[in-house]
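ARCHIVE CARD
Drawer: 12
Card no.: 0347
Subject: one protein chain, sequence and derived structure
Cross-reference: see card 0346
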Amino acid sequence: MARQLKKADWDIGAAAHLGGRAGFGEPPDKLDRWAAQGLEATVQELLHPESAPPPPPGCAVPAQFASLRGRVKRATSAEEKQGANRALQQAVNEQLFNLVSWWTEQMVTSQAPLVEKMTLFWHGHFATSAEKVRSPYKLWQQNETFRSQALGNFGTLTKAISRDPAMMVYLDLASSKAEHPNENFAREVMELFTLSEGNYTENDIKESARAFTGYRIDPATEQFRFAPRQFDAGSKAFLKETGNWTGDQIIDIILKQPSCARFITAKIWKFFVYDEPKPELIDDLAGIFRRYHYEIRPLLETIFSSEEFYSERARNAIVKSPVQYLVQAGRTLNVQIPTGRTLINVYRQMGQLPFYPPNVKGWDGGKSWINTATLGYRYQLARQLVAGMTVRNEPRSAASPQTMNAADQPDIIHLAPIPIEKLATEQDRSNPP
């Protein structure tokens, strides 16, 4: 049973632990306020942040690429087409650079840190990569879906992702039709998104794939549309239930399975607390998750209020992800963090570039963040953040953020060690980015 933390055990250390796990860390003055107001009020503040205007779009809308695509279509020679394609790809990559910087800025400055932290969690859970999607607008749109549903209902979010244009491209759902159902999304929605391996059969994959046929993307708006003539309306036998199921109904049947609540609960616990929790703890939390019909807030409230969340085992159990490492530095120390291509390179060097997960499984996390190369880079980056970054150039390149070669890299790749005595005499560089 997840026992609640005693009032006597709530102090500034506990507040700092909560701030780092439920967000990206907080400055001392905020931690003092949290310690004074108590655990319950602090958790409610995180779960119910004051409403704020939505952040501005982090990328170009589709119309802004229309002229460049038109140039490609109108090209009359191979040379002209090659040049037009190069210009289009460079524009797309510029927007992808901007998108990464935009989201990093949201995480550093947000007054709703738990919303951004859960947006990051869902980004790794419903992993979608720009390497295949190649649409800044679709990826921004997906990011906004994660943000709007971050603390809402898991079932609602899963249904929204089944209609998400970026996911539809990434897992080939946009081309699935009645006579040739594509099984990619159907497989991953059970294996990685809801149930985990061993809780469904190959026949369940085939039958559920039929239910997700007819999902399309309107090329003019890049929004979801349903094509009824491409939908398989026949009877489907799925997880021991038979009917003329639609995609939403397939997800409803999945949510009935106890293994779904256990899988999502365990993954959330590991993200926020520590690996390898006791099965009885997960069973208890999964029961709460199901009791509240997959509402995410009650589950997080129980976790963040629990004694185990603040235990000695939990305090130093998680290796910071590269995003957490960099954003927390900007948020808690008020140091200037890099932007643009420099930021892309920093993330790549540490092993986590937002919008570029390695595969549909997302990042492994944990100890995989640390090896001889990334650990040394973290040390040098920490020194550079404190001393102030100097980047002599940021070369323009049509290469994608994930595939830039050494010649395309900003100079930050060659971070030089800074003597400790120099750090002690550096001027204050705490102006916000």
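Annotation on reverse: Residues 15 and 404 are 40 Å apart (CA to CA). Residues 391-398, 405-433 have pLDDT under 50 and may be disordered.
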